[in-house]
Input
Amino acid sequence: MRKNILFALFSAALLLVSCQSKPQVGIQLYSVHQDSGDIASTLERLSQIGYTTVETLNGGGNPKCYGLSAEEFKALCDKYSLTITSTHAAIQNDPTAEAATMDKWRALFASLREMGASYCVMPGYSFGQTLVQVKASCDYCNRVGELAKEYGLMLGYHNHAGDFVEVEGELLLDYVLAHTDEDKMFLQLDVHNMGGNDPMYYLTHYPDRVKLLHLKDDRELGRSGKIDFEKIMKQYRANGYNEIYVEYELPFRIGDDEAENERNLKELWAGLKECYDFVVEQGYAY
Output
């Protein structure tokens, strides 16, 4: 009996060490949006590649993920040893009905808390066409960020190329960062969607705002040679952060041609594997 107990404890210890030593690599689930009809199968394949962390999608602030409740989706991720750490979701403010809008955020935040997430990232937002409008949007983001803290979450913003336009002489993203509070909205820096700007500028000028990274390239990570991932990761870690998510996009849609669909999906999964291998081999896993 004693030997059995000792063996069980030893096995549990080995499993714990194994889990702790496994490279941690996140994946934004938009990367597999063309093959997420059977989300269980998709999550299983991501886990088999080696991904350990998912950033899910709660489009429009929907508290459900892929039609599943928070409890159901978490159970599915747990089944495949995937940790839910973040989501992409945004709810546009309606100044005439902000109370109802904030209730939508509450429902989303409650769902994320149940899933065990730490972050809620807004993947783009219509801040406005004038600085007055943009400032009002920043104030709204501060209110949402303060609400997120009540649920143990941090609100973030994910940049796209359109965030680098000028509004009345001000670069939009910089203005937003200057007019939102550091403790209420961080920046998830997408190193590819920069509108021609240098990601290093934001890593060095806003070292405490860039708390998450999206590693992305034209296609598979590192192939284009356009992005200095080594320099980016070195600075990111020097700033005291290390959580990353792969975002891989192939521009195709599922259509009626079965053979073409099969070719595209095969290429998609091969690319996801290549991106994972790149992150691990380059030492960017955390």
In short: The domain at 21-281 is CATH 3.20.20.150 (TIM Barrel). The radius of gyration is 20 Å.
